[in-house]
Write a sequence for this structure.
C-alpha cells in the first residue's frame, strides 16, 4: 500500500486501522485490500474537501471580519486625526482668546487705577478745600475784628475822640490772639508745632488739671479719675498734653448736655506685633494708655470716621471750630503715640491715647511672654461674638493660633444659633455692645442658661471703669478692654477657662 493510502488510513483510524489491510494483502487478498484502500482514500478525500471548504469559509469570514476591523481602524484613525487638529486649533484660539481677555482686563484695570487716582485726588482736593475754606472763613472773621477796629480807631482819632480808642485796641488784640490760637491748632494738626517733650508722670499731670477740668465740665458732670499705680512715665510736652485732655473733656461735656460722668483712666499696657500689624503706624512696645470716657450721646460711625479731620464739626456755627480732635491727633502722632476712638450712639464715647513709655531712668522691663503656656487644650472651643469685622478677625486668628477651636458670630442671634448647633462650647467671648437688640450681657445670660458650665469673657471699647461703674455690667465680671493685644487675649481667655464659672 502506498504512502497515500497509509496517510488516508491514518486520517480514518490511525496506524491501528492500516494493520488489517496489510494483513489482507499479506494473506493473499491484494485486490480486496486495494479496493478497501481506494474506498478509504475516497472517504478521506471527501472528508478533506468538506474540511477544506469549511476552513475556506471560515478563512473568508475571518478575512472579511479583518477587513471590517481594518476599515473601522482607519475610520478611527481619521477621526482621531480630525480631533487632534480641532484640539490644536482650539488651543491656539484659546491662547488668543486668553491673551485678548488679559489685554481687556489690563486695560480695565489701568482705567480703574486712573479713576481711583482721580477720586483720591478729588478727595484730597475736597479735604484741602475744606481746610483752606475753614482757615479762610475763620481768618476773615478775625481780620474783620482787627481791620474793623483799626478803621474805627482812625475815625475816632479824626473825630478827636481819642479817649474811646482803648476798647478798639482791645478788640483788635483779642482777634489777633484768637488768630494766633488758630494757627497754633493748625500747626498742631500738621504735626509741626514746636514741642518741648520732657519726662512726665501722667497721673500727676491729670491730678494737676483736675481743678480746671471741674470748672470746664460744670456741676452736672461727675469727674472720676482712675489712675494706675506705678504708672510708667512718658516723654511729652506737658502743656500740650494738658491741652489735649482739656479738648477731650470739653468734647465730652458737649456730648452730655444733661449731665453725666467723665472718667479719666491711666494704665500701663503693651501693644504687640499683632496689634501693630492690625493698626498700621503703631510700633509695638510699651505704652501708657490714657482714656477719656463719657456717658454722652456718642456718635454714629460716619461721624467717628471723620472727627480727626480739621474743621470737621457737628456743632452749630460759632460753637465749634472742628479743630479740637485734629489737634489731639496731631499732637499724639507727633509724640510717637497712637489714638483710638470707641463710640456708640446713645451710650457714650471713649477716646484712648497711647504714648510710648519713657525709658530714661527705669530699666526696661522684659515684656512678659507667657504665650507658650497659654494655648488651648484639645477641643476647647471659644465662641467669638463681635460686630466689628477687624476685631473679630484679629481675635479669631489669635485664638486659632493658640490652638482653640473657634466659632464666630456677628451678633447675638447668630451666636445663639451656633450654640444650638454645636456640641461643645467652653467659652463665650462677646462684645458688651452688640447690634440688633440683644446686648452681650443678655446673650451671656441666655448662653449660661442653655450651656451649663459655659464661661464668659466680655470685651468692650469703653474703659473698664466707665462700663462697670455706669451700670452696664456687674462688678467682678471678666472684661477685656479694647484694644487688646495677643498677650492680653491669650491670658484672659486662659484665665476665664481655668477660673470658676
Ligand atoms: N465725646 C464726644 N461725644 C460725641 N461726639 C464727639 C465727641 N468728641 C467729638 N465729637 C464729635 O466730633 C466732632 C469734632 O470734634 P472736635 O473736637 O474736633 O471739634 P469740635 O468740638 O466740634 O470743635 P472745637 O473742638 O474746635 O470746639 C464734634 O463736632 C462732635 O461731633
Ligand atoms: Mg472739640
Amino acid at each position: 500500500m502506498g504512502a497515500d493510502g497509509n496517510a488516508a488510513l491514518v486520517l480514518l483510524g490511525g496506524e491501528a486501522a492500516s494493520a488489517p489491510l496489510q494483513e489482507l494483502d499479506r494473506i493473499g487478498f491484494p485486490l480486496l485490500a486495494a479496493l478497501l484502500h481506494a474506498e478509504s482514500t475516497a472517504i478521506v478525500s471527501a472528508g478533506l474537501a468538506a474540511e477544506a471548504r469549511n476552513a475556506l469559509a471560515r478563512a473568508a469570514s475571518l478575512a472579511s471580519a479583518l477587513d471590517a476591523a481594518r476599515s473601522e481602524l482607519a475610520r478611527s484613525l481619521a477621526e482621531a486625526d480630525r480631533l487632534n487638529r480641532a484640539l490644536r486649533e482650539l488651543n491656539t484660539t484659546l491662547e488668543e482668546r486668553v491673551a485678548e481677555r488679559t489685554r481687556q482686563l489690563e486695560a480695565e484695570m489701568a482705567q480703574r487705577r486712573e479713576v481711583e487716582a482721580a477720586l483720591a485726588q478729588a478727595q484730597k482736593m475736597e479735604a484741602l478745600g475744606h481746610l483752606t475754606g475753614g482757615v479762610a472763613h475763620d481768618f476773615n472773621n478775625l481780620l474783620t475784628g482787627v481791620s474793623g477796629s483799626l478803621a474805627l480807631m482812625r475815625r475816632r482819632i479824626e473825630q478827636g475822640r481819642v479817649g474811646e480808642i482803648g476798647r478798639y485796641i482791645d478788640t483788635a488784640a483779642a482777634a489777633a490772639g484768637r488768630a494766633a490760637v488758630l494757627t497754633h491748632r493748625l500747626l498742631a494738626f500738621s504735626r509741626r508745632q514746636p514741642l518741648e517733650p520732657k519726662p512726665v508722670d501722667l497721673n500727676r499731670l491729670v491730678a494737676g488739671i483736675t481743678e480746671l477740668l471741674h470748672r470746664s465740665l460744670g456741676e452736672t458732670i461727675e469727674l472720676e479719675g482712675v489712675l494706675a499705680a506705678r504708672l510708667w512715665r512718658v516723654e511729652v510736652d506737658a502743656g500740650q498734653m494738658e491741652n489735649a485732655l482739656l479738648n477731650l473733656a470739653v468734647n465730652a461735656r458737649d456730648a452730655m448736655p444733661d449731665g453725666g460722668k467723665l472718667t479719666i483712666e491711666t494704665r500701663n499696657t503693651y501693644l504687640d506685633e499683632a496689634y501693630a500689624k492690625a493698626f498700621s503706624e503703631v510700633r509695638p512696645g510699651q505704652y501708657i494708655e490714657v482714656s477719656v470716657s463719657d456717658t454722652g450721646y456718642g456718635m454714629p460711625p460716619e461721624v467717628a470716621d471723620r472727627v480727626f479731620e480739621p474743621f470737621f464739626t457737628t456743632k452749630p456755627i460759632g460753637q465749634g471750630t472742628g479743630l479740637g480732635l485734629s489737634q489731639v491727633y496731631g499732637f499724639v502722632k507727633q509724640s510717637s503715640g497712637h489714638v483710638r476712638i470707641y463710640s456708640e450712639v446713645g451710650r457714650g464715647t471713649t477716646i484712648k491715647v497711647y504714648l510710648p513709655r519713657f525709658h530714661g531712668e527705669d530699666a526696661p522691663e522684659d515684656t512678659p511672654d507667657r504665650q507658650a503656656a497659654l494655648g488651648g487644650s484639645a477641643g476647647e472651643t471659644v465662641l467669638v461674638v463681635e460686630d466689628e469685622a477687624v476685631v473679630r478677625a484679629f481675635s479669631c486668628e489669635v485664638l486659632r493660633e493658640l490652638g482653640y477651636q473657634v466659632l464666630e458670630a456677628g451678633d447675638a442671634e447668630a451666636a445663639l444659633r451656633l450654640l444650638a448647633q454645636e456640641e461643645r462650647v467652653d467659652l463665650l467671648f462677646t462684645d458688651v455692645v452688640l447690634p440688633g437688640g440683644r446686648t452681650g450681657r443678655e446673650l451671656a445670660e441666655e448662653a449660661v442658661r442653655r450651656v451649663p458650665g459655659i464661661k464668659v469673657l466680655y470685651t468692650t471699647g469703653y474703659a473698664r471703669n466707665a462700663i462697670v461703674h455706669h451700670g452696664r455690667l456687674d462688678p467682678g465680671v471678666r472684661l477685656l478692654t479694647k484694644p487688646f493685644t495677643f498677650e492680653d487675649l491669650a491670658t484672659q481667655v486662659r484665665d476665664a477657662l481655668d477660673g470658676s464659672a
Observations:
- The longest strand covers residues 260-271.
- The pocket of magnesium ion (ligand 2) is lined by residues 247, 250-251, 320, 324 (CB under 6 Å).
- The chain is about 55% helix and 15% strand.
- The mean pLDDT is 84.
